[in-house]
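[Meeting: bench + compute handoff]

Bench side (C.D.) handed over the final construct sequence. Compute side (W.E.) agreed to return the predicted structure before the next meeting so the bench team could plan truncations. Sequence as handed over:
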Amino acid sequence: MWDKLKTRLLSAIVLIGILLAVVFFATDWVFSIVVCAITFMIMAELTKVMRLETKPGIVITNYTFAAIFMALGILNIELQHEFIYMLIVLFVMTLGAFTVLDNSRIKLSDVCASIFLVTYSVVFLMHLSFIRQLENGVAFLFMPVIGAYITDTGAYFTGLSIGKHKLIPSVSPNKTVEGAIGGIVASVIGFVIYGAVMSAMGFSVNYLLLVILAVICAIVAQFGDLTASVIKRNYSVKDFGHLIPGHGGMVDRVDSLMFTAPIVYYFITFLPVIQ
């Protein structure tokens, strides 16, 4: 078990180093390109897991519309939302057309899987770029990261040390109630430390809102992890890939972050957590 944990920790250290370099030194454009690259990796893993790679019409449609969605998300253009609504309609229409033209291979379940795949891969993760584009966005990016990975770490080690009561064994047999609570506590501690650092840098911090956000992030982060577990169980796979030693595929590593990113973006957009 120690060898597995050591591999997991070493991979995490390398990933954190890369993440910090991209956050602090990359321009907004470069950061968004990195997010897009990760999104395409996620799509590739899900396409394989959902067994869509043998259906070129579906694959080409998914990647084409995903690229356009990402471009609209990055570019601040007039009528952006109207374009997005139009693209959603065209996307679903195109998938529907393939169920007619290639009905012997493409089923309605493939269309539903594709809609989920593109929404889950693109829309969720692109909120990292939205946060980065905010004023003080570089500093704010640490919130979804803390909410995802401090929660994950706290839940992992708490469950490993004192976990006894299974959380949802039909979805993930190794997760415990104690681990889930430990993840929430770790998230709150992480956010309070983050708030103290931001306060020392001259920002005004609303600690009540920060703690509320920490709890929400911890809960949705664990649901993000469990959602990925449901997908794996549904398609009978252990991991989404083997890209990251000790962690599995890209989805295995960012499943929690995909849920915390939009939560943080909308929370700080409407509520003055840090000013």
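W.E. noted at the follow-up: The CA atoms of residues 72 and 79 lie 10 Å apart. C.D. will use this when planning the next construct.
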